[in-house]
Write a structure and sequence with these properties.
17 strands, mainly beta, six-stranded parallel beta sheet
Length: about 180
């Protein structure tokens, strides 16, 4: 039996494939020298297709510029992104996560994460940048260093949907006009 590709006809069931991974010592870009686009994205095939289970996702410096124009909210990039169809036991950031572009999300979560720990600073510099945003299930979030967002309309921590059982922060700083420190929708 084989898994069917994305876009399978209605009524066709994909086979429940589960990939496992242990992803450690990952870095993308350097502070002051970001990559263009997203940083680290871990993704399964949504909630009904193949799944990705990650034991550890451990990063050092993540630095990116998504390249989106201000005022294009449908275009986003992420520093570290977990997508639906993905479950992660532990995410740990030993290095800073810095984004430079409009609509960039430093930490963007759509899957299931048991424990997410940021030990270094999380910074967004572009308009509508987000320090941490979640749409999935997040059991324990600990940000042990500051979240700083500097762009117009930026945000520190946003729960758009899903579940967050526990979240603890060192501090959230959002000095720009229209910025929001914590938003629960």
């Amino acid at each position: 039996m084989r898994a069917l590709p994305c876009g399978s006809p209605a009524g066709v069931t994909t086979i429940g494939v589960v990939f496992t991974a242990d992803l450690v010592h990952l870095s993308v870009g350097r502070c002051g020298s970001p990559v263009l686009g997203s940083g680290i994205v871990v993704s399964g095939l949504g909630d009904t297709g193949g799944r990705l289970h990650v034991q550890r996702l451990a990063t050092h410096t993540i630095s990116l510029d998504g390249g989106s124009a201000p005022g294009t909210p449908e275009q986003i990039a992420g520093g570290v992104v977990t997508v639906s169809g993905t479950s992660v036991e532990t995410v740990t950031h030993q290095g800073a996560v810095v984004t430079y572009g409009a609509n960039d999300r430093a930490l963007d979560h759509w899957g299931v994460v048991d424990r997410w720990v940021a030990k270094a600073k999380v910074t967004t510099l572009g308009a509508s940048g987000m320090g941490c945003v979640t749409f999935g299930t997040l059991r324990d979030l600990r940000v042990e260093a500051p979240i700083d967002t500097f762009g117009l309309g930026a945000g520190g921590f946003t729960v758009n949907s899903g579940t967050v059982d526990r979240a603890a922060f060192d501090r959230i700083v959002t000095p720009a006009a229209g910025a929001v420190g914590v938003q629960i929708r």
